Amino acid sequence: MAHTPHTDWLATAATVAEQQGAGNLLRVVLIVMVVGCVLTAWFLLRGYKRKDD
Question: Is 21 helix (H, G, I), strand (E, B) or coil?
Answer without folding.
Answer: coil
